[in-house]
Write a structure and sequence with these properties.
Number of helices of chain A: 9
Number of strands of chain A: 0
Oligomer: heterodimer
Strand content of chain B: under 5%
Number of strands of chain B: 0
Structural class of chain A: mainly alpha
Distance between the termini of chain A: 25 Å
Order of helices and strands of chain B: HHHHHHHH
Largest sheet of chain A: none
Shape of chain B: globular
Largest interface: A-B, 29 and 28 residues
Radius of gyration of chain A: 18 Å
Shape of chain A: globular
Distance between the termini of chain B: 25 Å
Structural class of chain B: mainly alpha
Strand content of chain A: under 5%
Helix content of chain A: over 70%
């Protein structure tokens, strides 16, 4: 079996597994919505303040909801032993890992982006800001999934679950948050957002090229 | 000649070296602390702008330097353990981590104490402060990961991957935070932009930096000795050492 065929089959397996458990897909979305709705309750109903804070709220809620999806990347395979089989297989582990992260992005991050689009529109984000948030999430979520996958690989099988993962990933998520929210702010002021988008795209490409190898090393380090 | 040093990559020999060296290093650091603090607190003149409250610089700046230095030590030692399977690499990385976290916390705390009289606030969202805070979280994540994994060797390898990724990320974090901070400059501007510092103030600062370094080395050796005993607890020499109460 060629490397690409193996990667495709890993991706297909993860997507099929996700499709069979729609509850697992829905939970991060519900968590996302709940977090976003907590802010107006905390801040109070002043609509101007809320509207200016909405991009930041969407980004923070998206980061937290993404962290929730991270344990599932390797947990199921770890539990039934197929993770060891993946590590032992002759296919390049980095490629297989990339396939798993792609599955996580498709089932975890993409619905979140859709949800933020919907919530942003419903809660009255103006069009330029809405576009900036969407584009920022699209360009930034690959690096979030990849770095999150790395943390998930380091913490596979450990108790402490999402808490440990949150502690590991959130400091590494901060540059993406900075660029994403500053793009939204600039869009709100009518300024160009190219710089932030290029940075986000650059970070994603950097992560795409380097993190699969780091994740493979992490899996080998943890699984011995 | 280099062969003489190679053997200290083995935990057993490093243990003896650490036992021998650490009292000396503690003594040297005590001496350096004494001279540095005397020079900084007594000899150095009061700053024309900040008066005597600038003197906390002699704790704050060396701590900040050490927080970054120790992270590099941790990452390099971890890399040595991960890539070249050097046992002492794993041990040094695990031993250094709490020390680095403490230096980072000390830098943040002394900075806060300095900031209150100077800027009127315990905390501002300046680039340097925010980067240092993120560094503290990186350390805490590393420590959390190490304590969550039972097997020390596996924990050391996983921690090494995390530390190396953190090293790659530190410039990214630093520059993104700097950009974030300068785009939205607050009312206060840091006063430490162009330090053309007087020699009478600089010398104690350098002495304190050396004092912190030697103190770090001394405590690292003490912690490394404990980690060696933990890592190597199943070997014969450790069992003999624990039974006899002294190295064989």
């Amino acid at each position: 079996m060629s490397a690409l065929a193996a990667a495709r089959s890993v991706l297909g397996r993860d997507l099929r597994r996700a499709r069979r458990r729609p509850g697992d897909l829905a939970q991060p979305l519900i968590f996302f919505a709940v977090v976003v709705f907590l802010f107006p309750i905390a801040i109070g109903p002043q609509s101007e303040l809320l509207r200016s804070l909405l991009p930041a709220m969407l980004w923070v809620a998206a980061l937290l909801a993404l962290v929730i999806t991270l344990p599932d990347v390797f947990a199921a395979d770890y539990a039934d032993g197929s993770l060891e089989q993946l590590i032992l297989s002759p296919q390049p582990l980095a490629l297989l890992v990339l396939a798993k992260i792609a599955a996580q992005w498709l089932t975890g991050a993409l619905p979140l982006i859709g949800m933020s689009a919907a919530l942003g529109a419903v809660l009255g984000l103006e069009a330029t800001v809405w576009r900036a948030v969407l584009l920022g999430l699209l360009l930034g979520t690959p690096v979030l999934s990849l770095v999150g996958g790395l943390a998930s690989a380091l913490a596979v099988g450990l108790r402490g679950g999402p808490l440990l993962l949150a502690l590991l990933t959130l400091p590494l998520y901060i540059p993406v948050l900075i660029f994403g929210t500053s793009a939204a702010r600039n869009a709100g002021l009518g300024l160009a957002v190219e710089a932030e988008m290029f940075f986000l795209a650059g970070l994603s490409v950097l992560a795409l090229t380097l993190t699969p190898f780091a994740i493979a090393a992490a899996l080998r380090a943890r699984m011995g | 000649m280099l062969q003489r040093f190679h053997k200290y990559a083995a935990p057993m020999h490093f243990h003896r070296l650490a036992l021998a060296l650490s009292p000396w290093l503690f003594g040297i650091s005590a001496l350096l602390f004494a001279t540095g603090l005397f020079g900084g607190l007594v000899l150095a003149p009061a700053d024309y702008q900040q008066g005597d409250s600038f003197r906390i610089i002699y704790l704050h700046v060396p701590s900040a330097w050490m927080s970054m230095f120790v992270y590099m030590v941790m990452a390099s030692a971890g890399a040595a353990g991960l890539i070249w399977k050097v046992k002492m690499g794993d041990i040094i990385a695990r031993a250094a981590a709490p020390l680095g976290a403490s230096f980072t916390f000390l830098a943040l705390a002394t900075g806060s104490l300095w900031g209150k009289p100077m800027w009127g606030a315990w905390w501002v969202w300046d680039a340097r402060l925010t980067s240092e805070l993120i560094l503290l979280f990186l350390y805490l994540g590393y420590l959390a990961l190490q304590s969550a994994i039972e097997d020390r060797r596996a924990a050391a390898r996983a921690g090494a991957v995390l530390a190396i990724v953190g090293v790659v990320n530190i410039p990214i974090i630093h520059y993104s935070v700097e950009w974030w901070s300068t785009l939205h400059q607050g009312a206060t501007i840091t006063k430490f932009d162009t330090p053309s510092i007087a020699t009478s103030m600089l010398i104690p600062l350098l002495l304190m930096a050396l004092a912190f370094k030697s103190f770090f080395a001394a405590t690292l050796l003490v912690r490394a000795r404990c980690e060696i005993l933990a890592f190597e607890q199943h070997t014969a020499w450790v069992r003999e050492y624990l039974r006899a109460g002294r190295p064989s």
